[in-house]
Amino acid sequence: MSHEAAAGRSYAPTLTAVYSQILVSKCAIPFCHLGAAGAPMTLGSQDEAYMQMVSVPANGPYCGDAGTAGLLRVDPGHPETSLLYKKIEMPSPPDLCGDPMPGNGAFLDARDIQQVQDWITMGAQND
Q: Among positive and negative, which fits the CA dihedral 81, 86, 88, 90?
């Protein structure tokens, strides 16, 4: 059994897995998307995170109030037009609004990025 499997990582392309395995530990933290930092969205429960991410226009202090060139935070079926994916992909795209995520140089590994991409590609369902 690998260390990752022992740690409970499934890398499943589901919101449950993305939320519990990535968002809670790497995004919903102080000074990021826990609420106190003034980020454009907070990640509370899985349902709250879903409602704030999926099919919601990207906006915020670095993306403009009207959204970023029509991007959604998560565009079901389309990681290439999902700000969440653009923020975590490596290398960061040159047209990225704001900073790559997660911040403070703590980037996601390739399997985490693939897990998010697969969830979005499969329709970004709230399972």
A: positive
Residue type, 28: A
Q: Is the pTM of this model over 0.70?
A: yes
Residue 127 lies in a domain: no
* Other beta carbons less than 10 A from residue 124's beta carbon: 26
The residues pairing with 74 across neighbouring beta strands, listed in sequence order, are 54
What are the pLDDT digits (tens) for 60-118? 666 665 445 668 989 999 999 999 899 889 888 887 777 777 766 677 899 999 999 99
Question: What is the Cα–Cα distance from 107 to 100, expressed in whole angstroms?
Answer: 8
Look at phi and psi of residue 8 and say left if phi exceeds 0, alpha if psi is from -120 to 50, else beta. left
Q: What is the pLDDT of residues 28-74, one digit of tens each?
A: 554 555 555 545 566 678 898 899 889 998 876 666 654 456 689 89
**Cβ atoms of residues 73 and 58 within 8 Å:** yes
Residue 46 counted as domain residue: yes
Domain that holds residue 107: 3-121
